[in-house]
Amino acid sequence: MKERIERVLREKPGLKGREIAKKIGEERTLVNSFLHKNTERFSQNNNYCWFLKSPSELRVEFEQDQWMDCNSFEKALASGESPLDIECSSVIFVVPEKCNILLDAAARFLALCNQLSSAGRAVTIDFNDCKSTLGYFDRIGFINHLNESVTVLPQRPSVSRALTYKGNSPAVVEFGGVDPEKENKELINQLTNRFVQQSDSKYEAAASTVFGELIGNISEHSKSPLQGFAALQKYGGKRKHIQTVVSDSGLGIVETLRPSLSEHYPTLHNMQSSDDFELKLVTAVLTKGEISRFGSGRGLGFKSSREQTIKFDARLSVRQRNLSIAIEYVSGQIQDIEPHVNLPTIQGTHLCFDFFVD
To answer: CA 11 to CA 342: how far, in whole Å?
Structure first.
């Protein structure tokens, strides 16, 4: 019952006991009794409305003994308060024993930590029980791009393995910063060359297009003081694939497009009152393409990338402020669309491409 009540009050604070009971499908007396017995977590005002209490310290613990992808990362975040949305002074992330974090989750994690630090929160990442993941994060450049004010336990590496061994791994391109004032050609070339080395020359045009377009998109649309970044890693297993992430902490797709909708896309503009408007807009951008803030039909930095995703039957996932959507193509057609809404807040646009290769 506790988690269900928390979820309701997180989405709509200030409800009375009977309203909460109706939303979660429980008896009013049971809900009221539970609320009054758990006043360390819930508070009631003079109008008998209930609220979640904001902790001074928020602790987020990932699951142990697993490979953590973006879905399990989001699940861990959603198990408590949204770190960016509550008034707390510090946030502690605990990486437990045998918690191996995949690149797509690492990118979202890095962006969130930097956003929290930029918002004035004291952020700590505790690797005491999983030093192997700290070593991995050091090697792929996560630590290099982590705000210096973030505390790393047991200690932040004094010498960066990402800088020492940069380019030495045939399966990795370490996190590289995206400078909005430059063309970032070196990073684009690194990603493209490594991708081709780990796949086939037939992917060269696709890789160059995707990396060039999406990294250029950060420079054009981000409008954030926080640096964007990109990285690549090849994974084995039953279905070998190359995973590439491109992230920024900027406005995001919805806020970038919103001012132009009334003039250029009246149908989308008229949908803004619907509860799922943001999801519909992001889905339209990713599946239909040619939606631009200028109304020119050239697309919001996704047109060519989308075409290459379709051509090579890749999987594309996009994480926005409070939602994500993953689209997988098979034989040039959409095989599956996996939406997630009401996610904890992470600012910006966080893309992950999975190209499946032999």
So the answer is: 8
Domains of the chain listed by start with CATH number: 2-52 (1.10.10.10), 55-166 (3.30.750), 168-358 (3.30.565)
Positions of the chain with pLDDT under 50? 299-300
- Is 350 within 8 Å of 108 (Cβ atoms)? yes
Cα distance between residue 318 and residue 337, in whole Å: 11
- Give the pLDDT of residue 153: 96
Say if CB 193 and CB 246 are below 8 A apart.
Answer: no
Token pair of 59 as six digits: 């602790």
Identify the pLDDT of residue 100.
96
pLDDT for 301 equals: 52
**Residues sharing a CB contact under 8 Å with residue 327, sequence separation 6 or more, in sequence order:** 286, 287, 309, 315, 316, 317, 334, 336, 337, 338
CA distance 237 to 235: 7
Strand order across the 172-178 sheet: 172-178, 228-235, 241-248, 349-356, 315-319, 324-330, 333-340
The answer to whether 305 and 213 are in contact (CB under 8 A) is: yes
Cα gap 98→27, rounded to integer Å:
41
**Contact 254/282 with Cβ under 8 angstroms?**
yes
- Taken as a whole, the chain contains a residue count of 358
Query: Which of 137, 120, 210 is CA-nearest to residue 172?
Result: 137
353 phi and psi angles, rounded to 5 deg:
-110, 130
pLDDT tens for residues 238-272?
A: 888 999 999 999 888 888 888 888 887 788 888 88
Among residues 358, 357, 285, 296, which one has the least CA distance to residue 325?
Answer: 285
- The pair of structure tokens assigned to 103 is 């690149």
5 token code pair: 């009540």
The C-alpha atoms of residue 355 and residue 358 are separated, in whole angstroms, by: 10
